[in-house]
Amino acid sequence: MTPRTKAQSTSLSAEKVLAASQQKNGLSISGGGGLKIIPLGGLGEIGKNTMVIAYGNDMLMVDAGLAFPSEDMLGVDLVLPDITFLLEHQDKIRGLVITHGHEDHIGGVPFILRDISLPVIYGPALALGLLEGKLEEIGLTDRTVMRPVKPRQQVKIGCFVVQFIRCTHSIADSYSLIIRTPVGTIVHTGDFKFDYTPVDGELFDIESLTTAGEEGVLLLMSDSTNVEREGYTPSERTVWRKLDEVFGNAKKRIIVTTFASNVHRIRQVLQAAMKYDRKVTVLGRSMLNLATIARELGHMSFPDGLIVPVEQINQLPLDKVVILTTGSQGEPLSALTRIANAEHKQIQVVPGDTVIVSATPIPGNERSIANTINALFVRGADVVYGREAGVHVSGHGCREEQKLMINLCKPKFFMPVHGEYRMLVRHAQLAVECGVPQECVFVLNNGDVLELSKEKGQKLGRVASGIVLVDSSRAWEIDEEIIEQRRHLAEDGVVSVALTLDEKRNVLGGPDVTMKGLILPRGILPEEFLLKIKDTIAASLKDKRVLVKLQGDALRDYLRGTLEQYFLEHVKSRPLIQFVVQEIIQHDLHGKPKIRACGDGSDV
Question: Per CATH, the architecture of 6-231+395-480 is what?
């Protein structure tokens, strides 16, 4: 995780230019006297939840997450929010509060800390335990102070007083937030559902929500993830019945995949393994770390000999084995995907193995998961998957639970968070149905600024926002232009041209043309098409009077533009065209030509 390159730190996106312009025209974070709500991530998308609440010279951050790439982000491992705004106002940041330990809420913290020292981070002990391991690994523990909190504890951060109240979600130690500000009280739900029979016995603190609602809530920011689902989300406890049934019927090994951070699900898998006298091996360091930390904090309990190394599991009878693994989203490099594709060094699917996919697809991952499940079936596994299978329930509340949240808090203003844009709109409509006036409901995009007074709310403008793409294997950030080039190559291929000209633009060598990944029109042979390309280049070199005025990159761009036009008209495609043009500009004392070359990227 190296700092931004110079090019990345100085380049301005259209959003940044707009933000800079607005700030020059009077948009001041510390001005106006109002309370400002500034989402930097998590709106219009799933993941990278990062929120800023500002008043005067004090800024409070709520969560700092990351997202995982979509299939078209070739070579990208992580997606982070652009933190230009935080860098510009880091002297005003008074602290960060964390709602729970999922990656889309804490995964961005190490990347922020490489550039900004946070005065303090408050959050659940489990989330901070996971975060501490990340920071120790990269040597950033000295960039902040982490303080665990307990249910109903209040902490003062700048001009804000934050109360942490227990909520129910798919990870233990989850909190909703009641934030008291100089303007009024904010409720930030975090990720939640109303689970009345939680597996850990920790009930949602509805009493504190009700009290806040009776006292008066200025703004409710509520999780929108499941707004398209009617009714209620089933309790986590319902998963046990199906897991117990599958474990009882399995004749050979059981392979279970779930989210690495799903403490409750991992806990139930370990309980089932103990009931049926099976040993467990855990594939995936993140999942093993979570189980270890959760056990230390009392969120799960299991004997020392239950979890064994993968080398030992291979020596046991097949009906005495459980393999707990990451890869529930079909990630190409995950353990489950490598097992499904017979690429794992230590685990191969045996016909008759039972595979339990205890998760639902994150939007955009459906195809990857389907490919993994198909590969498992091909190898003879019995795969238990899908919503109807009963081996997974969501950690997010459905519409009736979202209505309950709105009615408990009775907010003056409402702002949906944590969801794709259609989800935010649907959630906003739900708030109006529950009695919140239409003019008091705000659907924002990342970077929008919402200003609130005790009586009025308005969109104030925008700040810098966007995404940062990370290739974690190489520990650097990827420019979006590179991703676009990769898409371009995947869709239309590449054409490379090498050409040697003299000072008068006569052709001395070439053009040498190579094509990769290009689909030709029906009936045209590659040899014929190469001749057409060469004829097009020759035609563009006829007007020597114009060409001699073009030097270096200008000549290359002219020739490339001619070819781009040809491909668009005759092939209906836009391959990536790379030109290397060598210009012989004069001869040295020995009569040998001096060559000036210009080209694209690595072809120079």
Answer: 4-Layer Sandwich (3.60)
**CA–CA separation, 403 and 409 (whole Å):** 10
Tell which residue, 457, 478, 458, has the closest CA to residue 467.
478
Burial 339-364 (b: 16+ CB within 10 A, else e): bbbeebeebebeeebbbbbbbbebeb
Contact 86, 459 (CB under 8 A): no
The arrangement of strands across the sheet holding 507-516 comes to 507-516, 494-501, 576-587, 593-599
The pLDDT mean for the chain works out to 86
Q: Which of 3.90.230.10, 3.90.1150.10, 3.40.50.2300, 3.10.20.580 is the CATH number of 493-603?
A: 3.10.20.580
Peptide bond between residue 151 and the one before it cis (omega within 30 degrees of 0): no
Cβ 571 vs Cβ 520: under 8 Å:
yes
Beta carbons within 10 angstroms of residue 121's beta carbon = 25
6: CB partners within 8 A, 6+ apart = none
CATH of 238-389, one of 3.40.50.10710, 1.10.1040.10, 1.25.40.10, 1.20.140.10: 3.40.50.10710
Radius of gyration of the chain, Cα coordinates, nearest whole angstrom: 29
Distances (CA, A) of 114 to 91, 108, 131, 492: 16, 10, 14, 38
pLDDT, tens only, 434-445: 999 999 999 999
Q: Tens of pLDDT along 140-185? A: 999 999 999 999 999 999 999 999 999 999 999 999 999 999 999 9
Strand order in the sheet with 321-325: 279-283, 321-325, 254-257, 354-357, 382-384
3-state DSSP of 582-595: EEEEEECCCCCEEE
pLDDT of res. 19: 42
